[in-house]
Here is the input.
Amino acid sequence: MANLSATEISWYYNRLNKCCCRLTKPRRAILDILDDTRKHLSAEQIYKETLKISSNAGLSTIYRNLELLVRIGLTWEFDAGDNKARYEIAKRPGESHHHHLICKKCNSIIDYSASVDNEKDFIKKREKNLSNKYNFKIENHSIDFFGLCYKCSKNK
Ligand SMILES: [Zn+2]
Ligand SMILES: [Zn+2]
Ligand SMILES: [Zn+2]
Here is the structure.
């Protein structure tokens, strides 16, 4: 079973509290699963996993809570190109944020961090320009590249 540490729980708890939300059982279960697998799961997959950890929340409850967790920034939602929303845990303090390489054929997802200074600088500058130009306060971003993974491009 997935297990969040006490520090992690209090961190999530505070984040939820700030938005006047409680760390309910289904939310805890979702965070547990996403934190533990570190994978990009669909709502149905998350639902199946919650059943394993003896949560009795229905699929619609999972959907509703995922929506909320995305809204307050604890979970990321993105489309891997198959029109199915995937969810993953948002970064925690001290963790480097990552981007995605998504295979259009097998829908596998590779996480990578913008470790090259050039790329980080570029994104920072871009955010600054955009926020000046449109008077828009940028809080975060997500970058997904689509294409074919090594396996799929070989078996073409
Ligand atoms: Zn980034
Ligand atoms: Zn592939
Ligand atoms: Zn990811």
